[in-house]
Amino acid sequence: MDNKNTIHGDILGLARKLHPRQIEWRRHLHSHPELSDEETQTTAYLVKELKALGLRIRPLNMTTGVIAELDGRSSSRTVAIRSDIDALPIAEQTGLPFASVTPGKMHACGHDVHMATVLGTAAVLAQIRSEFDGRVRFLFQPAEEMPPGGARPMIKNGALDKVGAIFGLHVDPHLKTGKIGLRDGPTMASVFDFDLTIHGRGGHAARPQDAVDAIVIAAEVVNSLQTIISRDIDPIDSAAITFGKVSGGVARNVIADRVQLTGTVRTLSPKLFRKIPLLLKRTVGGICKARGGRFTLQAVADYPVLNNDSAINALYTRTYTDLFGRSRIAVTDPVLGGEDFACYLQKVPGAMFRLGIRNPKIGADKPWHSPEFIVDEDAMYFGTSLLAAAAVDYLNGRTA
Ligand SMILES: [Zn+2]
Ligand SMILES: [Zn+2]
Predict the structure, then answer these.
(1) Shared domain check, 151 and 96
(2) 53 within domain boundaries
(3) What protein residues have CB closer than 5 angstroms to ion ligand 2?
(4) 55 and 87 share a domain?
(5) What's the gap in Å between 370 CA and the centre of ligand 1?
C-alpha cells in the first residue's frame, strides 16, 4: 500500500470516530438557526469549537462569519474549504427532537450540515497536521441565501489570499447517502435580481383617456418579457425570468399611476447574462413608449455562473474513488438555482461537490427549502472524509 492510501485510511478512521461529536455540532446548529447576516450566535459557536480544535482564527472585519486556519508541515500552499452558515425564514415541520427552537427560522437548506462537515474536516486534519505540506483555510461564510451574499465581503477580507484552490459542498436530497455528485463547468445559474417600476399617470377608472394605466403596461411587460426567453436567446442556452411579486394601485375605481415588480433572471450562459439588462430595457422601454409611460430598472443583486474546475473535480474523483469506490460518484445535472460560491470560483480554481443525503426510510427525501427538509446525518462522514483527504492530496501535490 502506498503512502497516500495509508493517510486515507487514517482519515476514514478519524472521521468515523469523530462522527458522534459531529452529530452533536450539527444538532446544536440545527436547533439554533439564524437568518442571513444575523448569524452572531452561530459565529460565536464556530469560533469556540474551532479554537477548541486548535485552529487559528483570522481577524475578519465582518459582523458574522469566521475564517480559521490550520498549518501542516509548512504554509507553502493554501487550500480553502467553504461552508455557508445561514438559515431560512421557514417554520420547521420535521417533528425532530432537535428541531429549530426559533419560531419561523429553520436550517432547511442543509447549511447546518455543511458547517458540521467542515468542522469535522478541521478536527480530522488537526490530528494529522504532520502529514500534509501546506495550510488549510476554513471559510464559514454568512448570507449565502440572500444576494448580494457573504462571499464577496469574505473575499474582500482576504479569504482567498494565497489560496491555490477552493473546495465547497452542498447537500443534495436527490443523491443517496454515501454518494457524491460532480459536474465540470457551468453548473449553477447566474442570478440577476431586479426591481422594475412602471410609471403611468393616475386618473378616474371611467376616464382612461385622461390617464396612463400603469397596471395595463405592467401586464404587457410581464407577458412580453417571457418572449426574451423564447425569441432573444439561443434555444441551446437555458434561462428563466420570474416575477415573484407585483404590486400597484390603490382602489377599484382609480387608475394606478405606478406598479412595482420584483423579478429574477437565471441562466447558465455568461454571454446571455451580460446581455440581460439590455434586453430588459429594450423590451420594457418599447412598451412604455408605446403606451405613454416610463420605467425605472434597478439591479438589486447578482451572482455569477458557478463554474466548476475540471482539475479539482478530477482530484475529488481520484480521492473519493480511493476512499469509497468509483460507483459512488454521480454526474449531476446543471440547475438554475444560484449560489455565491461562484464568486470564489471567479478568482481561484475550485469545485462544489454535491453530498448525497437521501434516505427515504428516515424521511430524508424532501426538497431543499421544504419545512420538512430532513438530512441523513451519516452523509457527514462521507463529506468530511472527502474534504480532508482531498485537502491532503492537493497539498501533497497529487493534483491533476
Ligand atoms: Zn438554499
Ligand atoms: Zn444552500
Answers:
(1) yes
(2) yes
(3) 109
(4) yes
(5) 10
In this prediction, residue 400 carries a pLDDT of 41
Quick: pLDDT tens for 54-104: 999 999 999 999 999 999 998 889 999 999 999 999 999 999 999 999 999
Residue 277 in contact with residue 225, Cβ under 8 Å? no
Cα angle value 330/336/341 (rounded, 5°)? 75
Give the residue numbers spanning the domain of 49.
3-187+305-395
Q: What's the CATH number where 298 sits?
A: 3.30.70.360
pLDDT at 238 over 90: no
Whether 96 and 108 map to the same domain: the answer is: yes
Residue 295 alpha carbon to ligand 1 centre in Å: 32
Q: What is the pLDDT of residues 247-262, one digit of tens each?
A: 999 999 999 999 999 9
Query: At which of 286, 303, 320 does a domain end?
Result: 303
In sequence order, what are the residues at sequence separation of 6 or more whose Cβ sits closer than 8 angstroms to the Cβ of residue 156?
A: none
pLDDT of residue 237: 86
- For residues 52 and 68, state if they share a domain: yes
Distance CA 321, CA 388 (A): 14
| DSSP bridge partners of 186 | 307
Between the CA of 345 and the centroid of ligand 1 the distance, in Å, is 19
Distance 289 CA to ligand 2 centre (A): 41
Tell me the H-state helices in the chain: 3-31, 40-52, 111-126, 151-156, 214-227, 270-291, 310-324, 341-345, 379-395
- Going 305 to 284 to 145 to 151, the CA torsion angle's sign is positive
* 111 and 249 fall within a common domain: no
Domain CATH number, residue 100: 3.40.630.10
Q: What is the pLDDT of residue 399?
A: 47
Could you say which ligand is closest to the alpha carbon of residue 89? 1
Residue 398: per-residue pLDDT: 56
281 C-alpha to ligand 2 centroid (Å)? 31
Residue at 272 is within a domain: yes
Ligand 1 mean position, distance from CA 225 (Å)? 26
Q: Is residue 400 part of a domain?
A: no
The residues near 176 (Cβ < 8 Å, ≥ 6 apart) are 356, 358, 359
Give how many domains the chain has, as a whole number: 2
Q: How far is the CA of 287 from the centre of ligand 1 (A)?
A: 35
Looking at the structure, tell me whether residues 146 and 19 fall in a common domain.
Answer: yes
User: What percent of the chain is predicted at pLDDT more than 90?
Assistant: 89
Tell me the C-alpha distance between 23 and 32, whole Å.
14
Q: Are residues 235 and 162 in the same domain?
A: no
